[in-house]
Amino acid sequence: MAENDTNLLSTHFFDSASEATEAVRAADLLGLGVALSNRIVPDTDSDDGSFVEEWVVDIFASVPEAEADGEAEVA
After folding, report:
1. Where are the domains of the chain?
2. Do the beta carbons of residue 16 and residue 54 sit within 8 Å?
3. Read out DSSP for 38-72?
4. For residues 20 and 27, is the Cβ–Cβ distance under 8 A?
5. For 24, how many CA atoms within 13 A lie in the half-sphere containing its CB?
6. Which pTM was predicted?
């Protein structure tokens, strides 16, 4: 298990970048660590097999340390 996993408080999913940005700013005001990413997921509101962009905000108890490319864990 990665060190960041034990530091993780919660994960939030947003439909728009502006909502995700607001969550990042709120976490910053509270002095919490944040990881922001986005991904493409199936659109559950549509039957045509389309996809939508989803924003993911992970909130950490402290600022997570970034891993260098050469230091990433291999599963």
Report:
1. 3-64
2. no
3. EEEEE-TT-SS--EEEEEEEEEESSPPPPPPGGG-
4. no
5. 14
6. 0.73
pLDDT one-digit tens code per residue, 7-49? 899 999 999 999 999 999 999 999 999 999 999 999 988 889 8
pLDDT of residue 49: 87
Q: Residue 37 corresponds to which tokens in the numbers above?
A: 């990413």
Long-range (24+ apart) CB contacts under 8 A made by 63-67 are 63/33, 64/3, 64/4, 64/7, 64/33, 64/35, 65/3, 65/4
Other C-beta atoms closer than 10 Å to the C-beta of 59 total: 19
